[in-house]
Amino acid sequence: MAQCPSTGLVLLYEQSDVDNYFANGGCAVVEHLIIGDGRPNITNLNGLNGITTVTGVMQVNWLPIPDFTGLETLTSIGNLSIEWSPLLKNFKGLENLETINSLAIFNMENLEDFTGLESVTITGDIGIGGCPALKTITSLSVTEALPNGLMIGGCPLLENISSFSNLKSTTRLWLASCPSIENMQWLSSLEAATDIRIESNAQLSSLSGLENLNTTESLWIIDNKNLSNLTGLEALQTAETIEINYNNKLNNLDGLETLKAVKSITIRDNPLLASIGALGNISSKLNYVSIFSNEQLSNCTVDFLCSMIFNPSPGNWFFISANQGACSDKTQLTLACKEAMPVTLLSFEAVLEKQFVNLIWKTSEEYNSEKFEVHHSINGKDWLVIGELKSSGVGGLGSGYQFTHQTPTAGNNYYRLKMIDFDQTYALSTISHVYFNRNVETIYPNPTSDAIHVSSLNPGQIESFELVNSKGSVVMKRRGGKTDIIDLDKYPAGSYILRVVKKDSGVSSHKVVVSK
Prior knowledge:
Blueprint: E1 9-12, H1 15-19, E2 29-30, E3 32-35, E4 53-61, E5 76-83, E6 99-106, E7 121-129, E8 141-142, E9 145-146, E10 149-153, E11 169-176, E12 192-199, E13 218-222, E14 238-245, E15 261-268, E16 288-292, H2 303-310, E17 317-321, H3 330-340, E18 343-353, E19 356-366, E20 369-377, E21 384-390, E22 399-405, E23 411-421, E24 426-428, E25 432-436, E26 442-444, E27 451-455, E28 462-468, E29 474-479, E30 484-487, E31 494-502, E32 507-514
């Protein structure tokens, strides 16, 4: 009982291997324990009483055991994997088990619940799939984070998953083919999940319960036949990839109004979806959009789509087809965007120059545009009108504008444009920010022919520099330092914006002129 195999691996293939485990030199602490492994002639585990710890993998496969009687001394397992054991209904015999890192339960046709695991805390990940008799997961306890994921699928009778109500973060969150689950209230504490897939859950009618979720890399909502909207996702602001496909009753995207940053969106084969207006607050540039075969979809004139049409970026993919009205194809959407968006804004920049803030913006197209209102805020929420400029009204040619704010507030200053059409419809620009105080950086010489010096009373607070050309493209990035000399000799003559990014996330912008 004191010496484990030098390989760290214990293989028990026959009932006699189990019965004579300790007589054959078995030990109480095992690295990897494999029982059965496709040879279903082990009917009980009584000979294993005395094992206390499995530090690595414990694998139980293809066994006709009714329960885990014989493992009452087991208190800790690294990774527990159980598969194809048709007589198991619960986990009786594991009542003294305290910790599991990874739990994988697959293809257990008679498993009803997790009785026997009431004392266990799971710290890594959980995978449960192919359990047609499973009705409840109420016996498990998890920590606030499952760093390797929570995956549940193929459990048609599963209704109660309240064990996960304290989970705050995980990587993969997959829920698939669980037709008895109606909402996501069992995840009411979840704030972050890297990869979310909610797929083929026939009775899922609401995503309520996900109200605290604010970030994810990918969100897949696929083939949930009873889901009519996405209410429950109101806190979500950023996502790398979104896929919304084959949801038969989905008629709008309400719930995604706060989504601001995303890189890739696919919306396809949602037969009742009529509008994607809830995506109107997305302000990021997307590199992939595919919207097709949504039979009722006719409202697509949201800012980010119109921006992709009027300001295409090399390498970006934009496909729209087989929808209705303005969403029928790219030509129809282009016409609709020209009517809905009187101004196509190329850039909008707030630049601190000495004691003033210069607002500079450029347009590529203006149709029926009357004027620009300039808005100012100290918190990004409450806005005051500080001026207005008439539109040049140059149609498809675009134009450039400048407005000087002579009385910026000490601290944060936020600016936006309200672009107003002659019929008083309007659109709001993205927000530009300047931090103003007495310790703002000094840039010299300016104009320059080769290099500039950046002088600051707090150089240690400078995180990085970004140089932006007149087209709005970032042509240089570099980290900050206590001595900051920036060589501009290789850049063509013209006006640039130098952004100074602070470690507290503040940004100050300075106009720099390069002369040759």
